[in-house]
Amino acid sequence: MNWFMREIVDPGKLRLFCFFVAFILAFLFIRISVRMIRAQVTWWPGNITPGGTHLHHVVFGLVFMCLGGIGGLAVTDSGSLTAAVLAAVFGVGTALVLDEFALVLHLEDVYWAEDGRVSVDAVFVAAALCGLGLLGVSPFEIGDTFTRDGGTLTHPEVALIIGTNVLFAALSLAKGKIWTGLLGIYLTPLALIGAIRLARPSSPWARWRYQHKPHKLARAQWRERRIREPVERFKRALQDFLAGRPSP
């Protein structure tokens, strides 16, 4: 309890903590639910189809997000029980929406298709960014953590550091390194590594810069086969374990 008060409540992270816990639990619950429905377990409630219309859980997610988001904006005391509950409601809604992110992206039901894996990726990214926030890693608080001559950095210095960090993260994303780019917004060394390393061969950067540099394109393709593909196989296995294997 002392740790919780010291690390979560006192720094003002109660709402983020409640959001994170509710987000994880809601994602696990909805994935268990849809896998039960997919397996046609008789004792588990099936899809909700009022009037023959299948209501996807993204609909309920949007409702929860509106309730939690609008209600949270109306609460002035960020450390109150009401604020914590509304943050949890928002976390539940976010999990339900991101779990069907692929449906929203493709505007068709690809939940159990190969394209549906992007939903799990979206959930993983959101959970990672939220976890970093709980650990106190934030690019917008850099002025409070970095000092120069015993004092805090000036606003232009902070803006320069954050702007450089965002530039590195954008370069990483352009090179096809989604995880490196997104997490690099919070972790500058990671963004720098992604910005200076070779791009993935199918990335926009490779199409712009490597078409007339066959040696770089060949190196990028070699790295993709030797390094990226094993990592991708592990990620897919983890996705299948947590969220279910897509249909053939």
UniProtKB/TrEMBL annotation:
Keyword entries, A-Z: Membrane, Transmembrane, Transmembrane helix
Keyword Transmembrane: yes
Membrane-spanning parts: 12-34, 54-74, 81-98, 118-137, 158-174, 180-199
Amino-acid biosynthesis found in the keyword field: no
Designated name of the protein: Membrane protein
Organism: Acrocarpospora corrugata
